Amino acid sequence: MAVRRLATIMSIDVVGYSRLMDSGVSGLMAALNSIFRTVVKPQVETTGGRIVKLLGDGALIEFPSAFQAVQKTISESPVFYEYDEAILLRIGLHAGDVLIEGEDVFGDAVNIAARIQAEAEPGGVLLSKTVAELAGTELSYRLRHEGTRSFKNIAK
After folding, report:
1. β-strands 125-127, 87-101: how paired?
2. Following DSSP, what letter does each residue of 2-52 receive, concatenated?
3. Is the pTM of this model over 0.85?
4. What is the pLDDT of residues 50-98, one digit of tens each?
5. H-helix or E-strand containing 122?
6. What is d(CA 93, CA 109) in angstroms, rounded to the nearest whole number?
7. How far is it, in rounded angstroms, from Cα 100 to Cα 81?
8. Is 145 helix (H, G, I), strand (E, B) or coil?
9. C-alpha distance from residue 77 to each of 91, 113, 124 (Å)
10. Cα–Cα distance between 113 and 101 in angstroms, integer?
């Protein structure tokens, strides 16, 4: 049975994944597995979040709190040097109502987080106004307004 709840969704993408794959699949996959196992997973778990799925070139993560999602995301470097060259991540965050079915998560919040992630600078984190407002004023980091964006097939 599907369940609805409010969640903060993080979409992660490895910048230049196809190019990196050309330079050595086994080394890249070992580095990505190490990054997700030793860095991302422990950080997500300390906030009560969960990795919904690993996508080869990224991940989809659910957090129960916008504050914790932003705090952990910004405190962890989206650039890793466990490979022949730097592995840069793009990270996008959005919060909204999601549908949980089994271990998977669906809904506009997931789609919007993925669109926001695609707009992030390589090695950067981009979050929606909704996440910034929900995270509140107690963040240890100063957020910078990046302007309004519009996304294909997203009305608001």
Report:
1. parallel
2. -EEEEEEEEEEEETTHHHHHHT-HHHHHHHHHHHIIIIIHHHHHHTT-EEE
3. yes
4. 999 988 788 999 999 999 888 877 766 666 665 556 788 899 999 999 9
5. none
6. 9
7. 34
8. coil
9. 11, 19, 9
10. 18
Q: What is the CA radius of gyration of the chain?
A: 15
Candidates 45, 17, 42, 44; CA nearest to 31 is 17
Looking at the DSSP bridge assignments, the partners of residue 142 are none
Q: Which residue has the tokens 């909204």?
A: 96
Q: Would you say the C-alpha torsion 81, 87, 90, 96 has a positive or negative sign?
A: negative
Picking from 97, 40, 89, the residue whose alpha carbon sits closest to that of residue 69 is: 40
Helix (H) or strand (E) holding 96: strand 87-101
Strands 104-106 and 58-63, how do they pair?
unpaired
- Token pair of 28 as six digits: 């890249």
How many CA atoms within 13 Å lie on the side-chain side of 130?
17
Are residues 7 and 113 in contact, defined by beta-carbon separation less than 8 angstroms? Answer: no
Output the six-digit token pair for 87. 């592995």
